[in-house]
Amino acid sequence: MAQEVRGVIAPGKNEPVRVETIVVPDPGPGEAVVRVQACGVCHTDLHYKQGGINDEFPFLLGHEAAGVVESVGENVTDVAPGDFVILNWRAVCGTCRACERGRPWYCFDTHNARQKMTLTDGTELSPALGIGAFAEKTLVAAGQCTKVDPSVSPAVAGLLGCGVMAGIGAAINTGNVGRGDSVAVIGCGGVGDAAIAGSYLAGAAKIIAVDIDDRKLETARTMGATHTVNSTKTDPVEAIRELTGGFGADVVIEAVGRPETYRQAFYARDLAGTVVLVGVPTPEMKLELPLLDVFGRGGALKSSWYGDCLPSRDFPMLIDLHLQGRLPLDKFVTETIQLDEVEKAFERMNCGDVLRSVVVL
Ligand code: APR
Ligand code: ZN
Ligand code: ZN
């Protein structure tokens, strides 16, 4: 039987979001209905609301979520009712070229639920990133559910569904940060702080946090930064070089998504170092660099999309590390809120003192 539950809808471009009754169908083949317990508020939800992603309004927002599987459709074997899961927007197909060549994090054939959730008048909803989890229940593909240790708090678990996984993965997967490395992270919001926590976990010897806001730099220290640079007061490239014996950092992670900070990352790395772009640029942004400088340096220029994560490999591991006290995921939850407070959370998003607002149900 289809069920009626409450969910947060973005009705039209730049209109305030609101809680509405939505209809969640029974799971079809390969699908699952999940009772959502927590869902973080991410910039991407705001971009959906602003019409910046596509215009398939109305959207059912929310995509950084954890909850309990309520029911599954036919042919679902990996998860069962009662399982505690983190939802992901990368249910890899396993058969495309990227998957077959052992790089499933480049799989773009992600499997979302085929059925649609609707408003009570039958209007089809577009779930954000194929998830739509600012809702009491949501319908997803079973492959979007990854089982993890249920003793973790749902608010913490949901973080791995997007931004925090992106940051940790930028360090440990894309940047391949290892023991003894020097790392610089430019931009210390939720993503950059997660890159710092990931670098710390990976055994980096020096972790240099760069931001334009001193409060962000204070938080970065609690995540494992060993040095901080306010780039409005000090040239970050010079500061990073100075802190690394004149060489530059082994890995520089750009977590802002702007040409000027990318340029800083490019010049702040060691000659054979790696630059990882995890901040998301906008379509009009252009990067200009002397080609000779690209030629004259070795190393690697990489980008990291969702932290090059494999949910089935990374989510349970990171939750276990958190439960062992080795990864302070709880520090990313600034506040817990109700479904009807998402609009306010969007307003607070850019004020500088929120890492993550998490809706708890
Ligand atoms: N130099 C250094 N830091 C900067 C600069 C700059 N020029 N401009 C902004 N920042 C800092 C901000 O002060 C803030 O601490 O970058 C941080 C950005 O953090 P958030 O706005 O919280 O964004 P976050 O969620 O961390 O995401 C970072 O990744 O997912 C994408 O769209 C997201 O592009 C964004 C990036
Ligand atoms: Zn694939
Ligand atoms: Zn997100």
UniProtKB/TrEMBL annotation:
Keywords on record: Metal-binding, Oxidoreductase, Zinc
Alphabetized CDD domains for the sequence: Zn_ADH_class_III (cd08279)
Cofactor dependency: Zn(2+)
Domain Enoyl reductase (ER): 12-361
This protein's record includes keyword Hydrolase: no
SMART domains associated with the record: PKS_ER
InterPro entries given in the database record: ADH-like_C, ADH-like_N, ADH_Zn_CS, ER, GroES-like_sf, MycoS_dep_FDH, NAD(P)-bd_dom_sf
Pfam short name (any one): ADH_N
Cross-referenced NCBIfam families: mycoS_dep_FDH (TIGR03451)
Family: Belongs to the zinc-containing alcohol dehydrogenase family.
Protein name: S-(Hydroxymethyl)mycothiol dehydrogenase
Species name: Streptomyces thermoalcalitolerans
